[in-house]
């Protein structure tokens, strides 16, 4: 939500049409209104409203509000038509609005960024319309009596962008695009003064643009030099850090009115402002983390509104009022904030220099300006040098790994409780134990607050170690343990080359270079339940016969492990019988019970006596006391602890007998009594919230994400209201970033027992299954990130045994989606198991659909074929060094298929001996198939295809060409020349010629494959782009560099749009494009691009990934071509050492690096050393490709040239 789109007109112009400028609320300026601007709310950001399609539009019509209670705008006949305005293009970009008289005295740049759908110029303008005087327009960022005077040595700029989202001029925008444009414009504007401090001031959505720009400047500092390092202050005015929180009925009314006027919309950017939106959450969370890590931290201050906003002015309805950005959303956790007595649309406009609201805003800006110089001076320049260390020769893999994971986020399933009883100073006691050991155990009975204590300590640890990671592991069962490790793998972007996530996490955290961390293992109560299921490795579904998951607990001097358990014997074994490192979490003391109930110690003897009595009735259980306290508070001030005791005595449903037989049963009984009482009250107040509670309880998992749970309600705002209610009752916990919810194990058991006692004991689990099934994307959507986020939830809910026909349909659908997804990312064993289960359910389904059964069986057979070929010959990762070729897939019929998540290869690189062994086995199997089935049988051709894959890049006799030709001819005969299978095999044949150095033939076949695929695949398809990329690489080998550069430009644009700028394939293309530019002599540009690619690969793939090492090798070549020989030599040697360790001495990449190092050494006159590298490269190439291969011949000539 931003300021007015244009200055408000004189009230006399009553017949003027309203001008809409939504922002995160609707940025609106209504002519004829006294207020200078009106912005809309939550889902309706500040720019022009999104395009509401007309009947002729291909887009769907915006639906009318569903609830009959929603406000319906006035009939069209009774209100003026809504008109949309276009943004003046001259106002876009960075506009310098004030420069001090002496430019040499400039000490700081101030950049003001407006909100969504706001006019860049008028958003900061207050329009004064005195009754007896001329109208005055006061722009506080430009007025000679306001900001200029406050910061006389500042250069002041405003940044404008077009975010009109409705009307004929509606613009399709993304947060990242706007932030990138801001950074590019700033780089241009700040040329020659890159080290000058920057202070950003943003209204509404503009604050989010600032945050995204800050993150991009940090991760792409080569592209945007000096900006991140020079940013010293950020001032947020009405920025919805947590999304806009208003009810949705106003949005529905406004949309209905826009639709009635047939105005088109572009809604994409509006969704960013929804509470819980994934983009919003990720940006704010990462910004908050990084801003605290910068030494010293950037200065941050937030202002939020204290008055509701008439968001209905957009449709001439003053009755629609909402708080657009209140304190809950406008404040940023961990930073100072302050409310202003203004509504959202006037929060960024001030009457003059004596306006108290302006005084408060300029006070913070002046403070930031004063601190800027000291902040920059105290920032250690060595930090910036270290960040780029791997680019230079002095860097090592450990440094790169640490940087690669610096973007990983800690994610706790529980937020910090507002009330935490001292518990005999237990948090300090834990800290004292950790000063002597790396592992501490909290031991106590069920419900006595072990998890509560662990959460409190985790938050304290995060405060003591900013930037450290907190990793939460649910350790009640093996499946929960493994799912938690899977989440850690995703969060830390751990490269899992060997397929076992348990080993991958343990190995990663063992390395001290990966920074500080705390791991909490919650609920380690029965070691017999913690046998690995191998659910996260290559043999998913198989049972383990030995070992314990506790063997995978990492150890590092940089780490701490905090464990909770109910068993003292297990606690002792976990700390090697050193009982000093076990803390007994005893029952709640009387004083702690009073503190939990009232939030403080009370001197009121009557209140204290009632609290103590309640605690004893509830078996001194902190959890039960907390839930009881929430119940009492929810009932209002007239309801006392004594009333609650009376309620419990009136026969609230109990567990088991009249008295507990053990401490554990006592805790369970207490928890169930208070839970049932709270559930009964919840059901009376909000039945849907009560149902949601039981649905959440059916998941055997913590950290359930909002975005899929919300699909069970009519609107996200309604869902958030349910969550808030459940949290207030103490039965649900919400994560700090408000993106997920969790339930303690004891509360979960209470919920499950309550459902189990109902007439329909499976309804909650089936409802949960339906939600996950609906939310899990289909494979063709390529929404890999969403799939990975939902994967633990989907795995957990598969344990449901649905009774209804609908439930069985949902389970089969989810299994099919999981199978298809695992297939796409290369987890073939898991895919097969999911698909087998799906086949069984669909065959036994009451409403059996034979077509679905056939489809599932066909996919299952395809995956089994892929697995056989993958085991025979793993996929070869794309190579981009000089003379190297592209990759071919091991998967039949999916040769140019989808990329796997994270860019990892399907299996590890094999040695030459291993490849020979595999090739011999496949060759024997092929001969057997030819004898028994015939040469043209489908299985025979599949086996031939497997042999061609095994020979890829290690084919000295060129056999793969004949095999590929044979498979292609079979496809033409079976499917026809224009089928996608035939086109894919044409591409495979091109690869075979390419690898053999027959570039003319390869180029001809690539063109044929591209031409055919272009008619069958959508424009910009990743598969189509991959073919074009391969063709471009051949162009380089043919000397057609300009054509290659143009092809790479097309591929890169498409991949950035479809896959994202940092996707492994996008990065590979950017690297290849840089190499093409290098041939054309654009050395400076190439160094910049390769550095960008290298840093991104380090973050996402790891410092020792094959692709990362190739890029480092390419960068070394660039150094050589620029004459930086010493730099190039050191980097080549660093890469070579890593490749020999990771890939092996005979790997094609290792041999290529040796050749390139030899060329450098020869150029430097170090002939004996060059000769050694050439000889090793020649022997390896001869063994790999044969003596006549062009690459082998090339190395031989280099060797002969130096004698």
UniProtKB/TrEMBL annotation:
Q: What is this protein called?
A: NB-ARC domain-containing protein
Give the superkingdom in one word.
Answer: Eukaryota
Region entry Disordered: which residue ranges? 38-85, 861-891
Q: Which organism is it from?
A: Drechslerella stenobrocha 248
The record's GO molecular-function terms, alphabetically, read: ADP binding
Instruction: Supply the Pfam families for this chain.
Output: TPR_12 (PF13424), TPR_8 (PF13181)
Q: Which PROSITE patterns match?
A: TPR (PS50005)
Work out whether the entry's keyword set contains Lipid metabolism. no
């Amino acid at each position: 939500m931003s300021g007015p789109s244009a200055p408000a007109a004189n009230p006399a112009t009553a017949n003027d049409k309203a001008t809409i400028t939504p922002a995160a609320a609707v940025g609106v300026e209504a002519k004829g209104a006294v207020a200078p601007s009106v912005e809309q709310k939550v889902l309706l950001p500040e720019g022009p409203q999104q395009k509401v399609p007309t009947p002729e539009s291909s887009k769907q019509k915006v639906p009318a509000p569903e609830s009959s209670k929603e406000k319906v705008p006035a009939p069209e006949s009774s209100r003026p038509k809504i008109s949309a305005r276009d943004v003046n293009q001259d106002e876009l970009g960075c506009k310098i609005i004030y420069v001090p008289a002496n430019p040499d005295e400039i000490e700081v740049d101030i950049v003001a960024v407006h909100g969504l759908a706001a006019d860049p110029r008028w958003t900061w303008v207050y329009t004064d319309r005195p009754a007896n005087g001329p109208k005055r327009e006061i722009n506080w960022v430009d007025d000679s009596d306001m900001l200029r005077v406050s910061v006389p040595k500042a250069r002041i700029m405003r940044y404008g962008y077009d975010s009109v989202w409705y009307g004929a001029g509606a613009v399709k925008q993304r947060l990242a695009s706007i932030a990138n444009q801001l950074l590019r414009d700033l780089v241009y504007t700040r040329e020659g003064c890159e080290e000058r401090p920057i202070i950003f001031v943003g209204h509404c959505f503009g604050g989010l643009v600032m945050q995204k720009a800050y993150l991009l400047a940090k991760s792409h500092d080569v592209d945007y030099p000096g900006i991140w390092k020079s940013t010293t202050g950020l001032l947020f005015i009405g920025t919805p850090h947590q999304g806009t929180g208003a009810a949705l009925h106003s949005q529905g009314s406004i949309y209905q009115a826009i639709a009635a006027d047939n105005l088109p919309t572009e809604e994409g950017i509006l969704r960013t402002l929804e509470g819980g939106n994934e983009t919003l959450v990720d940006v704010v969370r990462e910004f908050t983390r990084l801003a605290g890590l910068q030494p010293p931290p950037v200065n941050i201050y937030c202002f939020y509104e204290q008055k509701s906003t008439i968001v209905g002015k957009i449709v001439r309805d003053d009755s629609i009022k909402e708080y657009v950005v209140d304190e809950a959303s406008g404040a940023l956790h961990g930073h100072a904030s302050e409310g202003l007595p203004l509504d959202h649309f006037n929060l960024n406009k001030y009457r003059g220099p004596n306006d108290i609201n302006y005084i408060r805003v300029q006070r913070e800006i002046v403070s930031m300006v004063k601190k800027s110089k000291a902040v920059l001076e105290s920032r250690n320049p060595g930090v910036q040098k270290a960040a780029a260390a791997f680019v230079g020769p002095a860097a090592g893999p450990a440094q790169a790994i640490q940087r690669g994971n610096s973007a990983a986020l800690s994610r706790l399933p529980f937020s910090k409780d507002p009330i935490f009883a001292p518990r005999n100073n237990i948090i300090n006691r834990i800290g004292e134990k950790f000063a002597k050991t790396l592992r501490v155990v909290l031991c106590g009975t069920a419900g006595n607050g072990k998890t509560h204590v662990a959460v409190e300590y985790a938050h304290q640890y995060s405060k003591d170690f900013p930037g450290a990671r907190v990793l939460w592991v649910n350790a009640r069962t093996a499946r929960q343990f493994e799912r938690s490790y899977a989440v850690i793998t995703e969060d830390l972007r751990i490269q899992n080359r060997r397929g076992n996530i348990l080993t991958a996490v343990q190995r990663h955290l063992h390395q001290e270079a990966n920074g500080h961390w705390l791991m909490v293992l919650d609920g380690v109560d029965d070691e017999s339940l913690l046998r690995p299921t191998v659910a996260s490795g290559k043999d998913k579904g198989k049972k383990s016969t030995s070992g314990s998951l506790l063997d995978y607990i990492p150890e590092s001097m940089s780490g701490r492990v905090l464990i909770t358990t109910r068993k003292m014997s297990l606690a002792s074994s976990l700390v090697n019988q050193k009982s000093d490192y076990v803390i007994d979490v005893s029952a709640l003391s009387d004083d702690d019970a009073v503190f939990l109930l009232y939030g403080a110690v009370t001197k009121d003897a009557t209140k204290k006596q009632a609290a103590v009595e309640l605690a004893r009735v509830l078996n001194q259980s902190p959890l039960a006391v907390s839930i009881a306290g929430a119940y009492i508070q929810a009932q209002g001030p007239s309801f006392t602890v004594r009333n609650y005791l009376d309620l419990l005595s009136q026969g609230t449903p109990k567990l088991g007998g009249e008295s507990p037989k053990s401490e554990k049963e006592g805790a369970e009984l207490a928890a169930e009594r208070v839970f049932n009482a709270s559930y009964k009250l919840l059901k009376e107040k909000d039945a849907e919230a009560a149902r949601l509670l039981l649905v959440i309880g059916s998941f055997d998992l913590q950290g359930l994400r909002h975005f899929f749970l919300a699909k069970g309600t009519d609107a996200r705002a309604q869902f958030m209201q349910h969550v808030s209610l459940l949290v207030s009752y103490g039965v649900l916990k919400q994560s700090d970033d408000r993106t997920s919810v969790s339930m303690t194990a004891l509360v979960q058991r209470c919920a499950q027992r309550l459902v189990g006692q109902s007439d329909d004991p499976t309804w909650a689990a089936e409802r949960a299954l339906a939600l996950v099934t609906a939310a899990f994307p289909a494979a063709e959507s390529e929404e890999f990130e969403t799939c990975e986020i939902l994967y633990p939830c989907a795995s957990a809910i598969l344990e449901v045994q649905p009774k209804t026909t609908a439930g069985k349909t949902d389970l089969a659908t989810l299994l099919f989606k999981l199978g298809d997804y695992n297939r796409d990312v290369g987890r073939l064993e898991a895919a097969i198991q999911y698909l087998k289960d799906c086949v069984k359910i669909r065959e036994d389904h009451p409403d059996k659909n034979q077509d679905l059964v056939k489809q599932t069986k066909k996919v299952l057979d395809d995956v089994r074929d892929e697995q056989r070929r993958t085991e025979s010959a793993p996929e070869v990762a794309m190579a981009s060094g000089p003379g190297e070729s592209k990759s071919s897939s091991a998967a039949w019929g999916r040769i140019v298929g989808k990329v796997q998540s994270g860019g990892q290869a399907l299996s590890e690189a094999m040695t030459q001996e291993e490849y020979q062994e595999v090739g011999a086995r496949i060759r024997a199997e092929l001969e057997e198939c030819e004898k028994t089935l015939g040469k043209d049988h489908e299985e025979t051709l599949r086996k031939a295809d497997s042999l061609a894959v095994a020979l890829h890049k290690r084919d000295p006799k060129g056999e793969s060409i004949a095999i590929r030709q044979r498979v292609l001819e079979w496809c033409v005969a079976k499917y026809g020349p224009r089928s996608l299978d035939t086109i894919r095999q044409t591409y495979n044949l091109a690869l075979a010629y390419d690898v053999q150095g027959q570039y003319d033939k390869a180029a001809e076949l690539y063109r044929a494959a591209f031409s055919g695929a272009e008619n069958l695949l959508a424009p910009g398809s990743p598969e189509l782009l991959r073919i074009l990329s391969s063709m471009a690489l051949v162009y380089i080998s043919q000397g057609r560099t300009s054509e290659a550069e143009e092809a790479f430009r097309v591929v890169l644009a498409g991949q950035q749009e479809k896959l994202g700028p940092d996707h492994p394939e996008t990065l590979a293309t950017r690297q290849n494009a840089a190499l093409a530019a290098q041939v054309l002599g654009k050395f400076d540009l190439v160094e910049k691009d390769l550095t960008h690619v290298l840093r991104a690969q380090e973050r996402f793939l790891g410092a020792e990934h094959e692709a990362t090492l190739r890029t480092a090798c390419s960068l070394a070549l660039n150094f050589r071509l620029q004459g930086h020989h010493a730099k190039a030599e050191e980097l080549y040697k660093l890469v070579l050492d890593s490749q020999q360790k990771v890939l092996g001495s005979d790997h094609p990449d290792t041999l290529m690096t040796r050749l390139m190092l030899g060329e450098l050494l020869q150029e430097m006159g170090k002939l004996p050393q060059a000769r050694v590298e050439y000889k090793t490269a020649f022997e390896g190439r001869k063994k790999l490709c044969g003596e006549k291969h062009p690459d082998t011949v090339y190395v031989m000539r280099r060797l002969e040239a130096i004698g």
